Amino acid sequence: MSNTSPLISADELNDLLGRSDVKVFDVRGTWSGTVEDAENAYNKGHIHGAVFLDWKTHFMEPDLAPNIAPVASQENATAAFAALGINPDDLVVLYDDYHHMMAGRIWWAMQYRGFTNVKILNGGWTHWQQKSFASSTDVPVPSKGTFVASENSDLIISLEDVIATKDASNLVDARGPVGYIGDPDDPKTGHIPGAVNLSFREVLDEASVLFKSDADIADVFNTQLSDFDDKPLITSCGSGYAATILLIALKQIGITAPLFDGSFAVWKQDDTRPIEQGA
Fold it and tell me: pTM for the complete prediction?
């Protein structure tokens, strides 16, 4: 297992289970599903020792809809690390069953808030089951964690900076084509002008949902983005979730890029900001 890779394989994780400094979190859920749906799935079976992590609560500012709620403040992130039992020397592993999207969001949020030893289970829960590794219905209760959140400002870009720099950058929209193209009958749909559509699915193997090889990932970005090696890169999507899958892929090939948190959902809040439709 590479210390710099954002990914951990099912075999690697299986060998680490049971260690007190390895914290595994089940981040299953979907946009349309409820927290109860995700928790019920967890209760029916999960990786041994995994703690359920509600992506709609942890590492998100409260009292706002998830699609526009920004990443948690330093104070709230510290509280989340404490509640989840995360300590400075731990290895954190996250998994879901939704293309790594929810796990990816938490992966990005933890890193933004200073915790760097966090990895995504490649292939998620689906691949874990395909490997026939053991599952459990035990519900562990974490002790209070001691990690104190900070900020890595390189991992985020503000709306103001997107406006100022997007024309000289590769602004990537990680949504699928339907969301990117928009609906002609709804002027609030479409994408940020100048954004290039590079769907998160492009960096995943369709059958296994494993991330593609490093060479294939690099080829995806080089093929779809002009001046990939020369222009600054900004990642975005509908709300700041799908783009984290691209961030994982980029990290896998040694590239760090910022996320426009809130992405198109934040962009379209102001009726004076232009929106493009079509491919």
Answer: 0.97
